[in-house]
Every structure is written in C-alpha cells, then in structure tokens.
C-alpha cells in the first residue's frame, strides 16, 4: 500500500481531536476524581431531569418507525443487487449482530437488574416484586433499544450497499437532507459528536461490566480484587483478544461470535434445566413478557412528573441514552453484514434474533435468582442493601448453582467473547471515521484500528480509577446521547427521503420497461 496515499486519506481532525479530548478527560479523572464525578453528576441531572421527555419521545418514535418501514414498500429494498443472496446464514448473521450489538454488560444486568428495581421506591408504587421486578428488564432491553439499532442499520445498509457511498460516517447518512453542508462544518460536527458518543458508550460498558470479571477471578483464584487488577484485565483483553480478531477481520469476528453465542446459550440452557427453578423461570418469564407488552405504551411514556421516585430519570432515560450512544457503532456493523438481505428481513430478523436472545437471557438468568428470593431460599436483596456490592451479589447467585466454579469460568469466558466481538466491531467502525473515504468492502489500516482499540479503553480506565458510582457511569451516556439523539432523528428522516426517491426511480424504470415492451408489440 502506498503510505503517502494512505496518509492522504486519513481524516486527521476526526482522529486527533477525540484523542486529545479523551486524554484531557483522563487526566482530569486521574487528578481530580471527586470534582470530576460531581460535575458529571450535575450535567446528567440537568439533561436527564429537565429534558427527559426528549429521550422518551425519540425512543418510542424510532420503534414505531421501524414497524412502519418493515411493513411498507421500503421493506422490499435489497441491500446490494436486486437478486443478491445474503453473504451469511441467518444464524451466523444473527450471532454477529447480537454479540456485536451487545457487550458483556448483558450478563451483568441479566443477573442483577431485577434487584435494582426491587429496591427502587417505584416498584412499591407499581405492586409487588413478583409482578414487576422481572418486567422492567424486559422492557429496557427489548423493542425500543433494538429499534434504535435496526432503523439505523437499514439506513446505513442502504447508504453503503444501495447508494454505494464511500464515506462510512454519520454525516454521510444525513446527506439527503443536509446536501452540500455534509462536506462542511455541519458534517464535521456531526461526526465528532458520533465519535464522542462512541467513546461514551464504550466507557460505560467497560466500567460497568469489567469489575464483575475481576470479582469472578478473585473468587476463583482467591486473590484480592483491586482497581489495578481490573485495569490489568482490560489491558489483557484488549491486547490479546482484540489483536486476534483485528488480524482476521470479519472472519475473526464471525468465529468469535459463534463461540460466544454457543457459550451464552449453553449457560442459559444449563441454568434453565439444572438450576432447580425451571418452572418458576418459565412461568414468571411468560407472565412478565405479557405484562410488558400489555403496558408497553404506559411504560414508554411514563415521566413521573411529580418526581415521587425519579424512576424514569434513573433508569428508562438512562437506557435509551445508553443505546443511543451505542448506535454509532453497532448499526454500521449490522448494516455492513446485512448485504443481500432486504430492509424487511433486517428489521424483522433483528427483532427475532436480537430481541429474542436478549429476552431469553433476562428471563432465565434474572428469574433464577428472583425465584430463590421470593420463595425464601436466599436473600440477595438484603445482601445488596447491606454491602452495596452488586458484583459480590452476582457471585453469590452463581455459587447457588450446581457446579458453581465451572459456571463462573463459563461466565468469565463468555464475557471475554462478548467484549471481543462487540469492541472489535466498535474499533472497526471508529477506524472508518479516521478516513475521508472508504470504498465498499475496503478495510481501514490495521494500525489505525489498533490505535482506536487503545483509545477506546483509556476513558474506562480513568472512570474506574476515579471509582465512579453507577450513577456517574450512567451520566456519561446520558450526556453524550443528548446531541446524538437529534442526529439519529436526522438519519431516520434522511433514509425515508432517500428511500422514497429510490423507490420512485425503480417504479419509473419498471414502467418504462413495460411501455417499451408494449411499443414493441
């Protein structure tokens, strides 16, 4: 490869500005951790409390739009040539989408999220732990979150495989409504916001889930868990596993995705069949799913205007923000691997595989421990309230399972595989932002990808060093999602406008062919 030509293609502004800002933030968190956390908390309160409805409206609106697109004529659009076949089988495609769209935090939250709700005042307002503690995890991880992914995935897939644009960036997806401004400062600002959102999502996920891995390692090897250990784990995962799949590109990611999905479903099957709570898991999961669907609109629009519990501000708004910032990477990846599929297949397939797998995780892993709680076999809520240690509580849950040490090893390996697949896809997407243009199928330089791998772990390490609370880790996503929410709406509107124009051209071309045939007769 011509080095000078390679350097000429690199977008140094999008590459160096985020690097400088992340380093500056890391220095602040290292030198003034308490003050940094306090400022972050204040900004989060202002955005989440004052503009909370903004996040909720975007979430519900995007989900409704996804159903409309799938059921409309736009659903027939093929990503690629009209008769092109999908590159990956449904299972491989779904595995890559699921494992790259979600990270190791799904296991952390699957085990523990019902406890967080069971200890929230809002649950007392709603009813009992049995009725509602299992409902909210399903709501916060299913249709609206995956709606964000899938609407943007079809927008990016259309941009890449149908319009064949060579700028794999958020700004390019807004071109149908921005026009020439895409190449100016407006486009640059959009891309910078996208990169910052990407870094925020990565920081939140790494900071939330990595301590669980450290706690499990501490339990297995009887070593004290410290921040240093956690940071070493992050570095080892990054240097070892990232490097493998970076060297092997999509092929490496697909292999890791397959390994991850088999371990993930193996873990779930074991807990379901041999954990001793099979009947409770199935019946409570079925009831919770029904209650979630029955109350879907109420849950989606609840704002707690009197602030009796601040539940939507603490949880629903956080989750919609969390998924918004992850939308910078995951939908690009889903759009890239969906070549040969239709818009309808991508959306409905994503809901079937992505939502189905997510719900299965929360129903089985969450209801296992909740069943032990409500039947009096264990008291995980008391343990959490006494210690405030969610990670230790999760280890206590795993200890109640048959073959607990083996289960801990499986959980650990599955989390590593989740990290590898999800963050490799993020690094790949972020690397694309470092280039002015990339042709369809062209991959960023390995060195650029590795640079982004390192950049993506700096902020999580700083947050862990500052001992940021769960509230402050959530704040990172809520702050970053505020501007990116508006960009997501712009991308959705741009796709609808461009897809309408494309369909009109296809219909016009088809009519011309019919007229030509008639004239020949």
Automatic annotation (TrEMBL):
Residues annotated as transmembrane: 12-32, 52-70, 90-111, 143-162, 192-217, 229-247, 259-282, 317-335, 347-370, 390-419, 448-466, 478-496
GO molecular function: transmembrane transporter activity
Entry keyword annotation includes Disulfide bond: no
InterPro entries documented for this protein: BCCT_transptr (IPR000060)
Coiled-coil residue spans: none
A GO-annotated cellular component: plasma membrane
Topology of the protein relative to the lipid bilayer: Multi-pass membrane protein
Cell compartment(s), UniProt: Cell membrane
Keywords: Cell membrane, Membrane, Plasmid, Transmembrane, Transmembrane helix, Transport
Main location as per UniProt: membrane
Entry-linked Pfam families: BCCT
Similarity remark: Belongs to the BCCT transporter (TC 2.A.15) family.
The protein's name: Betaine/carnitine transporter, BCCT family
């Amino acid at each position: 490869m011509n080095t000078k030509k390679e350097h000429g293609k690199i977008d140094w502004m999008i590459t160096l500005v985020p690097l400088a800002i992340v380093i500056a933030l890391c220095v602040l968190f290292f030198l003034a951790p308490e003050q940094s956390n306090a400022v972050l908390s204040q900004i989060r309160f202002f955005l989440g409390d004052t503009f909370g409805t903004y996040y909720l409206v975007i979430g519900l609106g995007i989900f409704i739009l996804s159903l409309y697109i799938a059921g409309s004529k736009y659903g027939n659009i093929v990503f690629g040539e009209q008769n092109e076949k999908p590159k990956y089988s449904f299972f491989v495609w779904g595995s890559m989408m699921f494992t790259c769209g979600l990270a190791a935090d799904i296991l952390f939250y699957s085990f523990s999220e019902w406890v967080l709700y069971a200890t929230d005042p809002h649950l007392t307002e709603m009813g009992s732990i049995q009725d509602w503690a299992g409902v909210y995890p399903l709501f916060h991880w299913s249709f609206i979150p995956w709606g964000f992914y899938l609407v943007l995935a079809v927008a990016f897939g259309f941009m890449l495989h149908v319009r064949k644009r060579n700028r794999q960036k958020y700004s390019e997806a807004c071109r149908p409504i921005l026009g020439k401004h895409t190449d100016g400062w407006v486009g640059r600002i959009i891309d910078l916001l996208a990169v910052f959102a990407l870094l925020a999502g990565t920081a939140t996920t790494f900071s939330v889930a990595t301590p669980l891995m450290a706690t499990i390692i501490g339990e297995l090897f009887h070593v004290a868990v410290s921040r240093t250990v956690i940071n070493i784990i992050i570095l080892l995962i990054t240097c070892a596993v990232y490097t493998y799949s970076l060297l092997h590109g999509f092929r490496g990611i697909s292999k890791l995705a397959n390994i991850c999905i088999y371990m993930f479903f193996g873990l779930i099957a074991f807990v379901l069949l041999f954990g001793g709570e099979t009947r409770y898991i199935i019946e409570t999961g079925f009831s919770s799913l029904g209650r979630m669907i029955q109350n879907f609109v109420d849950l989606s629009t609840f704002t707690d205007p009197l602030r009796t519990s601040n539940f939507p501000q603490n949880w629903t708004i956080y989750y919609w923000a969390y998924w918004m910032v992850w939308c910078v990477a995951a939908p690009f990846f889903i759009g890239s691997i969906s070549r040969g599929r239709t818009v309808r297949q991508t959306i409905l397939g994503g809901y079937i595989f992505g939502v189905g797998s997510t719900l299965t995780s929360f129903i089985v892993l969450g209801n296992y421990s909740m069943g032990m709680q409500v039947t009096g076999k264990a008291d995980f809520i008391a343990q959490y309230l006494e210690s405030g240690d969610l990670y230790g509580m999760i280890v206590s849950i795993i200890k109640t399972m048959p073959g607990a040490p083996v289960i801990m090893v499986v959980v650990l390996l599955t989390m590593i595989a989740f990290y590898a697949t999800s963050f490799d896809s993020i690094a790949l997407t972020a690397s694309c932002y470092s280039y002015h243009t990339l042709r369809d199928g062209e991959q960023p330089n390995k060195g650029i990808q590795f640079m982004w791998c390192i950049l993506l772990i700096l902020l999580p390490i700083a947050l862990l060093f500052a001992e940021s609370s769960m509230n402050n880790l959530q704040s990172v996503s809520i702050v970053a999602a505020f501007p990116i929410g508006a960009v997501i709406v712009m991308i959705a509107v741009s796709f609808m406008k461009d897809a309408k124009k494309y369909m009109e051209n296809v219909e016009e071309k088809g009519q011309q062919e019919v007229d030509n045939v008639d004239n020949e007769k």
